[in-house]
Amino acid sequence: MHIELIEMLRCPEEHREEFLVLSTSEMNGRMVWLGVVGCPVCHRDFEIIDGIVDFTEVVKGKRQTRSVRRTPAPASPVVLDAESLQALLDLGGPGGFVVLLGSASRHAVGLAALMGGVHFVGINAPPDVEHLPILSLIQCDRVIPLRQAMARGIVVGAECATSPWVVEARRVLLPGRRLVIEGESVTPEGVKQLAVGRGLWVGEKR
Ligand SMILES: [Zn+2]
């Protein structure tokens, strides 16, 4: 996890948003390789293991040696090159965060080559996606552990194109910014449809 992402994290529990507290055990440049993020509201602690923030398990007692459980995802049925995706996201200048859900995390390297100065956040990225200086990885259950309205763009992978994830994607997106879904059947509330077709749904948050 990139150290600056700490300001954008939130606890997945249903309580007010509050900054999480980071304690690092091992860094690699600006990336936290090992550490713990703690919630000052409900006092749950979550581990950062091998660079991945794991919100699926609460730390209890002494830290164990373990790896983060990740979810395999099939190749996307949608053919989408980085140039087309960049155009759909309509990001403009550098800076900020773009969130990639599930198998959409596979787009991080291609997008980063086109867009300098943007940091990518992969949520539940499949095991073939590596943690990189341009890509922070987070594992979670049903709540995306990011603050509301923090993302300059969001891409939802085909296997996540269902209502709980899409609702969460909308919450995390900044108003006026784009949501790209690899799937045509979900129409999120509060997002203005801009285009649909070729396996994709593109909208802008109101
Ligand atoms: Zn909490």
Briefly, what is this?
12% of the residues lie in helices and 33% in strands.
Q: Can you characterise this structure?
A:
The protein is mostly beta strands and 206 residues long. The chain folds into two domains: 52 residues, no CATH class; 124 residues, 3-Layer(aba) Sandwich (Rossmann fold). The protein is 12% helix and 33% strand. The protein is built from three helices and eleven strands. It has an eleven-stranded mixed β-sheet, sandwiched between helices. The longest helix has 10 residues. It is globular. The two termini are 29 Å apart. The model has no long low-confidence stretch (mean pLDDT 95). The structure holds zinc ion (ZN). The site of zinc ion has 7 residues, from loops.
Number of domains: 2
Instruction: Report helical residue fraction.
Output: 10-25%
What amount of the residues lies in strands?
Answer: 25-35%
Strand numbers in spatial order across the main sheet:
1-2-3-4-7-6-5-8-9-11-10
Mean pLDDT: 95
Question: Can you tell me the residue ranges where pLDDT is under 50 for at least 5 consecutive residues?
Answer: none
Number of strands: 11
Main beta sheet strand tally, sense and closure: 11 strands, mixed
Q: Which secondary-structure class do the elements indicate?
A: mainly beta
> How big is the Rg?
16 Å
Q: What's the overall geometry?
A: globular
Kindly, what is the distance between the CA atoms of the first and last residues, rounded to a whole number of angstroms?
A: 29 Å
